[in-house]
Each structure stands twice: as C-alpha cells, then as structure tokens.
Amino acid sequence: MKLDLFILGCVAEKPVKLKNLLEIAEYIRLDRWLNYSSVLILERLVKLSELNLIKICEQEENNLEKQLFSSTDEGLVILQKSLRDFIKDVEIDPSMFVMFLTFSNHLSREEVMNLVLKKIKLIDIKIIKTKELIELSKGFEKNKIRELSLKSLLSFREAEKIVYIELLSYTKNNLEWSDFLLLEEKWSLLV
User: Fold this and answer.
1) How many domains does the chain fold into?
2) Per-residue pLDDT reduced to its tens digit, 42-61
3) Which of 63, 86, 155, 165 gets the highest tally of CB atoms within 10 A of its CB?
4) pTM to 2 decimal places
C-alpha cells in the first residue's frame, strides 16, 4: 500500500514515466522505508491502472516502461483518504510520515491545518502516557532496556510533535504553501 501511495502521489502531481518514479524514489530515499524495484513499481503501475486509479495519458509504443502515467479522479480520492487516515493514526510510521509531508499538498490548506492540530493533540496524549509509563517503571526492578526504550520513545514523540508544529506554522504563514513540499525543484527536471 505504501508503494501505491507513493505512485499515486507522484502521478497526482504530474504525469510521469517509470524512469521518473525511480528518480523520485531515489531522490526522497524511498529505499530507507520501502523495498522496491523497477519491476515492482511497474507491476504496481499495471495493477493501479487496472483498478482505474491511474491512467496512461500518452501511449508510446507497447512498452509500459515508456508510458506516461497520470492520476484519475478515483486515484486522487484514494491518495487523499490515505493521507487523512495516516494523520489520524496514533502509531509511529516513519515512511508514512515522509509520504504525508511529501504529498500533503493534495489536501486543502485548511484541512492540513485541522488534521495537523488533531495529530498534535494525539501526540500530546501519547507523550503524557509515555511519561506515566516512565514514572510507573521507576517502581519496578531496574531494567535498563525498558528504561532506555521508554526514554527513546518519549524523545521520538517529542521530536515528531516539533515537526508537526513546524508544518502547521509553515502552512499557516504561507498562502502559497502547496508547493510540492519536498520535490519542488525535482519536478522542474522531469518529463
């Protein structure tokens, strides 16, 4: 599903070829979060096309690798739903976090601000619960692994909150916030 989300986000921005998807994947270092290959991306392009979530907008020979793919209305709806679902989730998923930051411009500015505010509130609850767990664990026998794990989790949640606060601030203060946030300069080089 994450690879599908990556593809849907890219084709929603601009029609792209397989080669472009591979360049973007490399640019955002997708391999840190997902295992992918050109064959796997090509398989997903075919499947997403069969599901009418993407379409071939310019047919070039019968070689799928050279086709230009773009989004359908259904594909954009699925992309937006996936972004909304992620931001509402309380679990930590670094790959989805990168996807949200990369493709959040496909939601309205007001919606992003509302979703991010809700996410910050969810993180605040998780921070409080993590702090409670740290306090509770002080009453147990010393366990360095548990102690380190809880402190690491707390630090991660606090850092995650800071990033969302930055995104909220950027979105509030920039009417033209909807640039393709992480890939703006990359898009000018493609296709």
Assistant:
1) 2
2) 999 999 999 999 998 866 66
3) 86
4) 0.74
